[in-house]
Amino acid sequence: MNNNATTTSRIDVADVLRGLAVLGIVLLHSLEHFNFYSFPATENVWLKFSNSAIWDSVTFVLAGKAYGIFALLFGFSFFIQDNNQQTRGYDFRMRFMWRLLLLFLWGQLNAAFFTAEVLVLYALVGFVLPLFARCSNRTVLIAAAIMMIQPLEIAELIYALLNPEYTAPAPLDSQYWGPAYKVLAEGSFMETVKMNLWEGQLASLTWAWENARFFQTPALFLLGMWIGRRGLFCYSESNMRFWMATAAISLAAFFPLDGLVPMLRNFIENRAVAGPATLIASSLAKFAFMMFLVSGVVLLYYLSPLKKAMSKIIPYGKMSLTNYITQSIIGSAIFYNWGLHMQLDHTRSLLVGIAIFVAQFLFARWWFKSHAHGPLEYIWKKATWIGKRK
Is 206 inside a domain boundary? Predict the structure, then answer.
């Protein structure tokens, strides 16, 4: 394994990125009412404008990108843990697979409250990390690139082009979202939990399968591991040049890819061809913009006067698991029928997301005054190493 990392200690800019990603997730989920799209009508012209501007801007910046940064950092964290254990003469891979099983259980807890959570998906595809952990950097990048370009969608696209009579099947997730929404709108707490743990999980996983996440997520895991190996989140002049180049290339790639998506939808009449072609272009466009955001944050952190201000979100980022799961609990209690069932427009929904973030941010800063790990992070760590002799 080529390991050029300069440190195995915690890297602050990664926690800044993680904190911003979890902030983006709660803002987006609040705007979407935690996947329960129920919004009141409004006749106020200014509120209509505000709602439209907020929805368009937040989804443009965050949809598919905040999740992507979160996934990238999952792979980076694996590298830090694995590298630390290697320096002590311990192979972390088997222990990490046990850790993935624990993450699956965390995902079940989260899924009980939130339809469309991602931790279960992470647990399912996270095995790609120990599988490639001892491969060369070149092999890791090639594997990540193959998964990032969506090989199954490419195969489906080629098949549809060679077989004009082929008709794409109906989306698998459509059969689950209808029953799920009905329970979210009318169900009790226990009915919601029961639905979330079955129909909700099936809806989430089939949606992920049909929207490029089953390949993009492990690709991001591997890319995060590669970034850790190269020590690219540490400061050096060469690393800053790398992130400047990444920002420029990502932005240059984003605009044609993003512009290609509506063109494919509008000009290709064969849905069996347009579907996979659009999905490939869309996933790559989101990846490009996500890398532009990552590059921008790293460069601002190291090269601008904003480092001190950006560092304030570090405690929030260190508590990402706790924050992610408690967001789901709070959000479902606000928007679902079993809770307050609040009917809010986009503007007020965003304010709810900001309020959740502020509450969690203040709690994280208070908590870390006397603790080394977040509440759920501590339990996960202890459970990870259960049975290991010191």
Answer: yes
